[in-house]
């Protein structure tokens, strides 16, 4: 379904878009919107990296100060870090550069539309549209948006309809998030995605130590770069575990913790401690949570809590 099917217009309205700023998220969404016919007329970019990103992803877009960007568009996309959003909104409100009726969208996961109140008071239509996706700054960012969910929050049904239409146009799936639930929504996403990266990087580091000095097909392993042997060993296992967890929930848990094998877990803690005490501490914390999920034996819980 597209926005034209929602509004029953023969074609969705083409919007002039301004972006503040030309970071990974803003330029990826801007490029996605241009692909479906909207026009990014201006964006702000300060650092050399953001200027290069704007020139690459949005080559026909003029680079201007934030206030000028805001004054030239029908849809203003605020794609700045969470802790910069309130200051940016206040600054734009003070300049009076946002015209009444402007659609103002921010991409912060942690914030709803309350943070946009200074612009709403000037007649702007506030929306929070957060892509539940990680951004690397590479070409795949824009392509991944077409398979992502977007957490949307708006002031009324008209706002929700507009936000939904924009997401559907670029191939995403809109999901409503209540204003008061935005912090919890963001915490859940950060816990799942960011901590997954830390978990995988720690597992790779430990596996590299385990495989050091071995040979693969008669060749000595040199495995201190990404996409090496350790990553190839872990890749299929991690992909299957993630798929099982998403499809089967806690029933997907396997391994020594799920079996209640206290001796194996104690050994894991010992050998990981030799590699890096911080990795061992992470293993202990996650094993304890896994044991709680699995209803493991009391003696295993005691080991993980450091009581035995």
From TrEMBL:
InterPro entries noted in UniProt: 6-PGluconate_DH-like_C_sf, DUF2520, NAD(P)-bd_dom_sf, OxRdtase/DH_put_Rossmann_dom, TM1727-like_C_sf
Residues of the Putative oxidoreductase/dehydrogenase Rossmann-like domain: 2-131
Pfam families xref list: DUF2520 (PF10728), Rossmann-like (PF10727)
All residue ranges annotated as the DUF2520 domain in the record: 149-289
SUPFAM superfamilies, alphabetized: 6-phosphogluconate dehydrogenase C-terminal domain-like, NAD(P)-binding Rossmann-fold domains
Domain of life (superkingdom): Bacteria
Protein name (Swiss-Prot/TrEMBL): Predicted oxidoreductase, contains short-chain dehydrogenase (SDR) and DUF2520 domains
